Amino acid sequence: MQVNQMSYTKRNDGRKPDDLRPIEAKAGVIKRADGSAYFRIGNTWAYAAVYGPRDLHPRFLQNPKTGVLRCEYSMMPFSGMGERVRPGPSRRSKEISMVTEKALTPVINLDEFPNTVVDVFIELPQTDAGSRCAGICAASIALADAGIPMKDLVTAVAVGKVNEMKVVDLNYDEEAQEGEVADIPMAVIPSTGMITLLQMDGIISKDDLIELLKRGTEACQKIYQIQKAALKDRYKGGNNE
Amino acid sequence: MNDDLKAHIIEALNKGVRFDGRKLDEFRKVEIKQGFIKTSEGSASVKIGDTEVLAGIKMSMEKPYPDTPEEGTIMVDADLLPLSSPDFEPGPPDIRAVERARIVDRGIRESKTINMRDLLIEKGVKAWSLSIDVVSVNDAGNLIDAFGLAALLALRDAKFPAYEDGAVNYKHKTDKKLQLTKVPIPATVYKIGHNFLVDPTTEEESAADVRLTVTTTEEGKLCALQKGGDGELSVEDIEKMVSLGIEKGKELRALVR
Amino acid sequence: MKVSELKVQDKEIVVPGDVLADGMEYLPASGTYREDNRIISARLGLVHVDRRLIKIIPLSGRYMPKRDDIIIGKVIDITIGGWRLDINSAYSAMLSMKDATSDFIRKGDDLTKWFGIGDYMVSKIVNVTSQNLVDLSMRGAGLRKVKGGRIITVNCNKVPRIIGKGGSMVSMVKMATDCNIIVGQNGFVWILGTPENEAIASEAIAMIEENSHVSGLTDSVKEFLEKKTGRTITLSIPTNEEAAGEFAGESNELH
Fold first, then answer.
1. What is the pLDDT of residues A86-103, one digit of tens each?
2. Separation between Cα atoms, residue C28 and residue C221, nearest integer Å
3. Cβ neighbours of B168 in A, within 8 Å
4. Residue B43 maps to a domain
5. Is B77 part of a structural domain of the chain?
6. Shortest Cα distance from C39 to chain B (angstroms)?
7. Is some CB atom of chain A closer than 8 A to the CB atom of C168?
């Protein structure tokens, strides 16, 4: 008996394969923080706040040669596509916190701040796939907003393959499609093209992966312009006009 | 807080002046938004001045508790996110968060704002369980009132998801809204020296010894009360604070109409 | 040889990663770095080109203690040797007994007789080690504990604008509101006056902080103060010097 192969040939929201969902970004949205941002891509929405450099406790975590970056990623209880997300760290959120930190570390220079910590808190009020990438995009803006010395911003997006179709910026329904799906969150330093985050769930060939990394890097250039504009727009009414 | 600074604040309050130029019974600008978080069954955002909070409702289908077979359940959780202030640390909720959650809970559940029997689907077998989560996004003072308002507005916005084939279908929202028996509005009154004020900044919160959260209904009746802080209150104090709470409750109620 | 090219204008707002110049003629100064033969911004801030040097004047960033800065600190602890102060930085500062006062302090004396927890002190940073350990001194003209009044916190990067060239901006606020104002380089600002005037002064300072990068600021602040106080203000420095003196607020004078 022949089994009908489900095949994804048109994106469920009408986008072309390399189209990003609509993006909105703003800096300086949390006044108590030293730096902050809000980044929204489609229905995935992330806040990031940076506090630091500040004192680091307990002392044994301090590094006398440099400040340390500490990231915490969390989903708000009402942000999941299904049931309530129990507050508090889960294994998934701890892992995402760690890869987020690793994605941002290569551009940050904390040598001027020995024995301190720069805390980055990422919270998502609403998610529709691509949440760790949105978190990284928000965190980059927030770090620059906080005056942290950085070589460049970091930009992230999830690329992947849904059945036979290679796409950029998967939404939740694409990730959940039946049949073969590859979901590849990636982060890039836009000025050098170097990759600082790479993960993959699913099945994919090497050639497809490399092609997707290139397409993802290109898509990140568009996101990068939006991140920069968010920072500059905060100071609109100044000398740029 | 430094005694000198506190004395200075009190001196100004005695003259009817607050550091940001407001009168003692004046609220900062209140901005509200509802129904914008698609993954929730009900949502609201409340800004009071620069203080900003979010509230979201999630619903699930559970078996009723054995001693209340005809009722659903409500749970309220408040989180002071480290995102929102340099003073909040990551980790399990500290007593401040727990107290705020309980104040919101008292205003909503103990006041019977929602009739738990409305949540019943099948006696002893299935009933809706509501979770109300409020979180702080920026703490510029007066999170208590912001939380209470946000929770209420999220409830007012809430719609039941579809229940099909023995499971909740979160993607499919029905038009059925929650029935609220009342609209409880909190207004917390703070005592600094001999002065009573509302909607404090974080600095004013540190200068206050004692506060009273007064939650009222449309008829101006009290449906929840909570005293907080180390200080003491005379009965006259309480009467004055309750009157101020009722008056402010009316004003806030008009704003969120 | 490739010609060097400036890619941005003076006072343009840039972010980390923005290319500021191409070619080897320009030199990277504070807030920038060189990669291959380009100069790139490492901070969010305003570009400042001074002949061949390109630097970034940051718009944000927490206070980093600098020697000779005059700051306001808050006593947070009393130790064997003196007092520990919060100076609105990732690093706290030490004020030792010998640098605090010319009084003779005996071993075992109760240090709170001089300064207690919660006191705010105008002091000078006399030493910063490579690990950013900070030493303060109270010995010097105008250095003292402040009594009464209130403390507000501003973005330390905006302090030069708040002080103004030769102290002109803060003087204008002081005169209009009859307030005593001391602006610490670390972003702590002390204000003392009547409650109403303190509120006006505080709002004026917040306005300067918010609009520090906008031209015509002195005029806007003057207008605001005149409206709120009902007084007419005569400026001691004409406003067209504002552009020249934009970032020239003297750091080593007490204002």
1. 999 999 999 999 999 999
2. 35
3. 83
4. yes
5. yes
6. 34
7. no
